[in-house]
Write a sequence for this structure.
């Protein structure tokens, strides 16, 4: 049974004079006192030092030989202590993205913890995410993209939101026999002299195959799915491909639509048929485009207009003007533009603001 307290008997590190304490576990504890009273000696040089020493002793003898031997703190007895981490004491400037977790660096440990040992759940049914077999992925692709005119790209993601030029990666793909890749949403030839911005984040997917989804082509589709899962380490993307005239004549790259789905042999909901990308530490970081809120960009605040302040008197028409910042009725040039918009949407500029349809 886990003890309820951390017991310290006769701690004598540095200027501590045989201090004995009983500290409650699972609590936030603050040591206070004048300078030189032994706060840091108790927290860092006694409690943390013992917790770190016990953690290292729990490792294998092979791992311990690289870390050296840690001295036991000058104390008669410490019980109820778990492996611990120490947060560096530092000052920091104000930043709208800073939180207690980021300033103390605890956030770095937490996002790795969630990414590696967290259990994903389906957003639709709430059930845990489980592995999806190749046959299940194959059946889902046939059901979703099946049709005589549906041409698709089978893609294997090899880089997601990562910075770099990826020259070595492109060379390795060419040596492996691949011809095309989709870089930041555009299908390109790997034989081209691809020049990516070093300090920008890029998404790179290898084109495994381009095919038309037909029941008689099941064997080719199955081979492409297996190859994509191998290259993408358990994840593949199926994108609907719409050929334009240039690509049909062989003079251009295929034009992709927004219709695409992710399939995973490791992270999928077998009930809803939804696949997810493998969790990464960036997914749990509000400073990363992969994990930040798309509405507030990770800042936790969203700026918008107050309609009551913009239009204090909704009985007025747009030309009055009803919008307070306009101050006066628009001139001939701007009025010509507004009238064109009104004709396109289908409303009258002289209608009171409160009677206008939402689209207007």
């Amino acid at each position: 049974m886990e003890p309820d307290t951390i017991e310290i008997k006769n701690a004598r590190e540095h200027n501590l004079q045989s201090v004995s304490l009983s500290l409650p576990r699972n609590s936030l504890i603050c040591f206070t006192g004048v300078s030189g009273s032994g706060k840091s000696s108790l927290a860092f040089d006694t409690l943390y030092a013992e917790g770190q020493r016990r953690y290292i002793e729990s490792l294998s003898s092979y791992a311990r030989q690289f870390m050296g031997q840690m001295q036991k703190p000058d104390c008669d007895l410490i019980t109820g202590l778990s492996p611990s981490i120490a947060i560096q004491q530092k000052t920091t400037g104000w930043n709208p993205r800073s939180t207690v977790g980021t300033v103390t660096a605890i956030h770095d440990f937490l996002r790795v913890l969630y990414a590696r040992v967290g259990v994903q759940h389906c957003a639709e049914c709430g059930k845990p995410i489980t592995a999806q077999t190749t046959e299940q992925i194959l059946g889902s692709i046939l059901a979703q993209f099946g049709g005589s005119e549906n041409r698709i790209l089978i893609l294997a993601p090899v880089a997601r939101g990562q910075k770099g030029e990826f020259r070595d990666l492109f060379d390795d793909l060419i040596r492996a026999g691949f011809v095309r890749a989709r870089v930041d949403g555009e299908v390109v030839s790997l034989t081209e002299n691809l020049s990516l911005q070093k300090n920008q984040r890029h998404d790179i997917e290898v084109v495994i195959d381009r095919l038309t989804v037909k029941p008689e082509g099941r064997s080719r589709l199955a081979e492409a799915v297996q190859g994509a899962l191998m290259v993408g380490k358990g994840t593949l993307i199926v994108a609907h491909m719409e050929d334009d005239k240039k690509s049909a004549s062989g003079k251009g790259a295929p034009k992709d639509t927004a219709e695409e789905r992710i399939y995973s042999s490791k992270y999928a909901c077998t009930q809803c048929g939804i696949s997810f990308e493998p969790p990464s530490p960036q997914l749990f970081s509000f400073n990363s485009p992969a994990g930040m809120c798309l509405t507030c960009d990770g800042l936790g605040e969203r700026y918008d207009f107050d309609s009551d302040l913009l239009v204090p008197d909704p009985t007025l028409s747009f030309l009055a003007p009803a919008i307070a910042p306009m101050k006066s009725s628009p001139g001939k040039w701007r009025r010509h533009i507004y009238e064109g918009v009104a004709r396109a949407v289908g409303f009258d500029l002289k209608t009171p603001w409160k009677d206008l349809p939402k689209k207007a």
Remarks:
- Residues 305 and 311 are 11 Å apart (CA to CA).
- The chain has three domains: 5-79, 134-265, 307-355.
- Residues 5-79 form one domain.
